[in-house]
Design goal:
Number of helices: 11
Helix content: 40-55%
Mean pLDDT: 89
Structural class: alpha+beta
CATH class of the domain at 59-168 and 278-284: Alpha Beta
């Protein structure tokens, strides 16, 4: 059991919008488990949102490189944003991304890949010595299709292919590659803005769905509703949940009157052939990393 601190209460309040005393009570009841406290507040109908506002404190850049039917996104971290604006660092990130396009998305394989006479790992070490900050290749992901296009988008771009959020989207189709890439960029922009958790309901982590069912069911069970009514409410609630977190069910950011699935169907007319979303990857700089103040 963790001791409940004022910082924990403030964090939970920021995450849920619930009152300070309710947050303190939830943390006490769950032994300081913040995620469990979020669920508890939601079950009691006291939480305004289930999203965790993760504090992003690390710096660096996300890089995207595309090559027709293949694309890669990498994240390279630095200690300060000042370094991220450094041309030397930006060149390093581009070099790492291009190396990954050939070597694959395995971080160690990228580090072992050669860029000229040196390996990427040696180039990173050299940059650390030159710039004077710790620099690390945190992660990489790639997508490819046999026929179609891999499109991408970089948000908050500081140089070509470099920014704070990078997205790649793989589209399978036998239609016009140019039209497909154009639509793919729009879809990548949507992913950057809407941040879907999965392609569709079937691709969601079963544990996530089970957790949502539990939260919805407990909330209305506490209100004394009969089980058959609760089951219908949970089913309806899940449909709403899917519209929030599943790519194909989300409202398309470029035209909220249609879903992404409808937008894809409409784009098939321009492309001249059926389109299948094979996958997507979204990297937001330093998501999941928390830097403590010195």
């Amino acid at each position: 059991m963790k001791p409940v601190t004022s910082q924990m209460v403030k964090e939970l309040r920021d995450m849920t919008g619930a009152g300070m005393m309710d947050c303190k009570a939830a943390l006490s009841e769950t032994g300081g488990d913040v995620e469990a406290a979020v669920d508890l507040l939601r079950k009691k109908g006291l939480a305004k949102a289930a999203k965790k506002a993760g504090r992003v404190a690390a710096d660096g850049l996300v890089g995207v490189v595309l090559a027709g039917t293949k694309g890669i996104v990498v994240e390279v971290n630095s200690e300060t944003d000042f370094v991220a604006r450094n041309e030397h660092f930006q060149g390093l990130v581009k070099m790492i991304a291009h190396a990954g396009l050939k070597a694959g998305a395995d971080v160690e394989a990228i580090k072992a890949a050669h860029a000229g006479s040196k390996t990427i790992g040696e180039d990173i070490a050299s940059a650390i010595a030159t710039i004077g900050e710790n620099i690390s290749l945190r992660r990489a992901a790639e997508l490819s299709v046999g026929q179609g296009a891999v499109a991408g988008y970089v948000h908050s771009q500081v140089a070509e292919g470099l920014g704070k959020i990078g997205v790649i989207v793989a589209l399978e189709s036998g239609g016009s590659a140019e039209e497909l890439s154009s639509f793919g960029r729009k879809l990548a922009m949507h992913v950057a803005a809407a941040n879907p958790q999965a392609l569709d309901a079937d691709a969601l982590d079963p544990a996530v769905v089970a957790r949502e069912k539990d939260v919805l069911g407990e909330k209305f069970k506490a209100q004394g509703k009969p089980q058959n009514v609760i089951d219908k409410i949970v089913e309806s609630g899940l449909k709403t949940f899917y519209k929030e977190v599943c790519l194909v069910d989300q409202a398309f950011v470029h035209d909220a009157s249609k879903s992404v699935a409808q937008a894809v169907k409409e784009a098939e007319g321009q492309v001249g052939a059926p389109i299948r979303i094979k996958g997507f990857v979204r990297f937001a700089l330093a998501e999941g990393i928390e830097k403590t103040d010195a």
